[in-house]
Design brief:
This protein is an alpha+beta fold and 188 residues long. Helices cover 30% and strands 30% of the residues. The chain has a domain at 17-138: Aminopeptidase, CATH 3.40.630. It binds coenzyme A. This is Acetyltransferase (GNAT) family protein.
Length: 188
Amino acid sequence: MSRKHPLRSDATPARGRRQARRTTEHAGAVTVRPELLPEDIPLLLDLLARTGRFREAELAVAAELMRDRLTRGPASDYRFLVAEAAGTPVGFACHGPIPATDGRHDLYWIAVDPRHQRRGIGTTLLRRVEEAVRADGGRRIYVETSTQPAYGPTRAFYRRHGYRRAATLADFYAEGDGKAIYCRDLGT
Ligand SMILES: CC(C)(COP(=O)(O)OP(=O)(O)OC[C@H]1O[C@@H](n2cnc3c(N)ncnc32)[C@H](O)[C@@H]1OP(=O)(O)O)[C@@H](O)C(=O)NCCC(=O)NCCS
């Protein structure tokens, strides 16, 4: 398995309707645990598939990272945060330190169940990732996505949370489909 699995969402967001907005209080009903459980795997893979934004090959990579974590435990470089509502996973994030760098971390995945998006859960997960990175002595987080217009919502999410576009690699994924690299300095 290669060390680094930068991932991107992969399809046009089909969600035309704007869901009922969740208040901060509602978002507080979601809990986040810094632990991946074996029973999470099928649920999180189903969640990813239902976003309609990831290719089969990307889902296979997600499964691989989850198995790596479960097999190797804390020795794994892939760290998971799982958001739960009423005891059911509704989102997750996967992040880890970039080897041979000084406090640089990658955010490999962040995804929220389509039925629970735009309610602050992604924000909660991202903040928890940042807290974990800080606690680990990390100072900068990188995250990658596609430059295609369909990925506008994902890019808006990162921008909204202080991530700046650090680089753009034209035609990275395919002709006309570039890679946008965002990063955020966490400060000291
Ligand atoms: C990106 C994602 C994780 C955001 O999670 P979320 O719980 O829906 O995000 P939040 O409710 O915390 O949104 C926070 C802010 O991000 C921006 N944002 C999120 N979704 C957006 C959308 N569809 N359109 C425009 N802006 C959006 C907004 O600024 C939003 O703040 P607001 O609701 O006050 O306007 C989620 O939409 C998702 O899982 N998308 C599919 C998977 C994906 O693309 N993952 C990233 C690549 S691995």
